[in-house]
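Work Package 4 report. The design task specified in the project plan requires that, given a folded chain encoded as structure tokens, an amino acid be chosen for each position. We show below one input record used in the internal validation round.
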């Protein structure tokens, strides 16, 4: 298998995930995993939780494709939790569908049903393709839990949704699972009733699949490779042929499945069904050593990938084959071993639930930490835009807002105005009353200016005793009136409360914005207006 290179870092991460999905759809699981891991690393580095959830989902789907069920279950659970935290219900439903499949395969069918049903509730208004995915894995969960009628109803709903909306290729996933479910139903009927029944249903499903293939002959596969899908459908035909006594046809289907597994990434789930079929063929031929050999191989493979549904079938199949040979003691030993494994599985499930809760708590704590960091960063940014003494905005904020004010003024057809405010004889105030009193004067002036602004206006302390108010909603003529009111408010303010004998006045220059203005040009005209006004007032007072 060639080694797949990671994607170029210049490729957007969402494009990388799209490429991973395409690779998975065409059966290239190895490449899909490389792409998904690269996307996950980049999302985690950027603390991008929505993209991290998408990358985890892509990883879980790829791992599930090659029957790495335990790892797929863990990543699907994490993806579902992150989607929930990000309030992405569509993503959460998709992750729950994958989680449902892995849980039911691993022997936790009740949890699988719960996950699939929750996904359906979240997907209530989703497109047919998304809803069908949830119904398909609800069928898997029901089937692995032995509720075959409910499983069949879920599969039929999934198939109907897909074919009615023209998704003929995608409909082959629930069709494959429906055939596999029917094989399991026949197997368990034989185990509990002592004879095979219901083979007519297998034949009906074979005919229906054949008719669908005629309508959509150029099938790809929903998240899988065409040959693997054909192998699974053929294995269903093989079981039917075997149980009807046509062992040669059954053998040909097993051989085809084995050949399909040699192409592309291996899918142990196909191999498990092939080994099961070979054990059934050997049993029908009364080749007892070969039948037991295939059962043991099936059991070992199922255990290695945590496919508990197939582990259980392999134990029961081996027990029946031993009983058919009169080896009752050995048969009972297999049943006791299965019972012990089921008990161990329940204990492990409780431990896994505790671990999942712990991870969810950690994820919530991480999310809370991220929120606190974001709030802290916002606070720091706000502090960087404020004047520490007066609480007004500073020059940096004014530089950021002026282009927006100018643009909105053009859109409204109203040129905004700016007032430049300078404290008269401020150095004398500091020298005569102290710098502490001077700071108090600036703070009081900040309160006065804030009382004259409306939402959208920008009151700013430029530095020292210089202030600016950028008015977003008045023109130059109206701003002159506001400037006079500001001067009056300053002169009538009870400054003596700060220090007996203290009086404060300000000079104000006003300028309206002009076409092509920048902050510097606009401020320059305001500054000139302020000096003219200051000089005029001093001559009158002097």
């Amino acid at each position: 298998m060639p080694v797949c290179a990671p994607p170029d870092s210049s490729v957007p991460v969402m494009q990388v995930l799209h490429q991973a999905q395409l690779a998975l759809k065409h059966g290239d699981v190895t490449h899909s995993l490389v792409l998904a891991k690269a996307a996950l690393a980049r999302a985690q580095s950027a603390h991008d939780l929505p993209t991290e959830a998408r990358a985890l989902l892509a990883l879980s789907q790829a791992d599930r494709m090659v029957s790495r069920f335990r790892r797929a279950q863990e990543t699907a659970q994490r993806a579902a939790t992150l989607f929930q935290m990000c309030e992405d219900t569509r993503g959460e439903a998709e992750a729950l569908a994958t989680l449902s499949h892995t849980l039911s395969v691993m022997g936790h069918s009740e949890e699988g049903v719960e996950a699939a049903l929750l996904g359906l509730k979240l997907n209530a208004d989703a497109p047919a393709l998304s809803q069908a995915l949830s119904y398909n894995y609800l069928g898997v969960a029901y089937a692995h839990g032995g509720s075959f009628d409910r499983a069949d109803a879920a599969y039929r709903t999934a198939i109907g949704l897909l074919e009615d909306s023209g998704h003929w290729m995608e409909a082959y996933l629930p069709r494959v699972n429906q055939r596999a479910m029917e094989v399991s139903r026949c197997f368990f009927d034989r185990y509990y009733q002592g004879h095979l029944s219901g083979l007519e249903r297998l034949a009906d499903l074979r005919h229906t699949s054949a008719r669908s293939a005629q309508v959509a002959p150029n099938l790809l596969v929903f998240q899988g490779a065409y040959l693997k899908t054909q192998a699974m459908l053929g294995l269903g035909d093989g079981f039917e042929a075997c149980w009807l006594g046509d062992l040669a046809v059954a053998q040909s289907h097993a051989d085809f499945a084995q050949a399909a597994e040699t192409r592309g990434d291996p899918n142990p789930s196909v191999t498990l069904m092939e080994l099961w079929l070979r054990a059934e063929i050997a049993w029908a031929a009364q080749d007892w050593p070969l039948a037991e050999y295939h059962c043991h191989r099936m059991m070992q493979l199922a255990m290695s990938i945590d496919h508990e549904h197939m582990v259980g079938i392999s134990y029961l199949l081996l027990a029946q084959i031993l009983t058919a040979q009169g080896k009752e003691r050995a048969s009972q030993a297999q049943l006791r071993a299965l019972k012990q494994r089921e008990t161990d599985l329940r204990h492990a499930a409780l431990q896994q639930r505790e671990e999942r809760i712990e991870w969810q708590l950690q994820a919530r704590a991480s999310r809370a930490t991220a929120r606190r960091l974001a709030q802290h960063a916002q606070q720091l940014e706000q502090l960087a835009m404020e004047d520490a003494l007066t609480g007004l905005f500073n020059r940096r904020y004014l530089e950021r807002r002026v282009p927006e004010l100018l643009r909105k003024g053009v859109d409204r057809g109203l040129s905004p105005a700016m007032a430049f405010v300078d404290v008269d004889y401020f150095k004398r105030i500091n020298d005569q009353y102290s710098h502490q009193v001077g700071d108090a004067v600036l703070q009081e002036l900040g309160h006065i200016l804030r009382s004259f602004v409306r939402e959208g206006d920008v009151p700013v302390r430029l530095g020292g005793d210089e202030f600016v108010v950028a008015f977003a909603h008045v023109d130059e003529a109206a701003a002159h009136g506001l400037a006079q009111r500001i001067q009056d408010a300053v002169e009538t303010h009870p400054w003596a409360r700060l220090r007996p004998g203290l009086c404060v006045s300000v000079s104000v220059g006003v300028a309206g914005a002009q076409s092509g203005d920048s902050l510097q040009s606009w401020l320059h005209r305001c500054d000139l207006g302020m000096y003219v006004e200051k000089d005029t007032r001093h001559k009158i007072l002097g």
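The two ends are 95 Å apart (CA to CA). Validation will be extended to a larger panel in the next phase.
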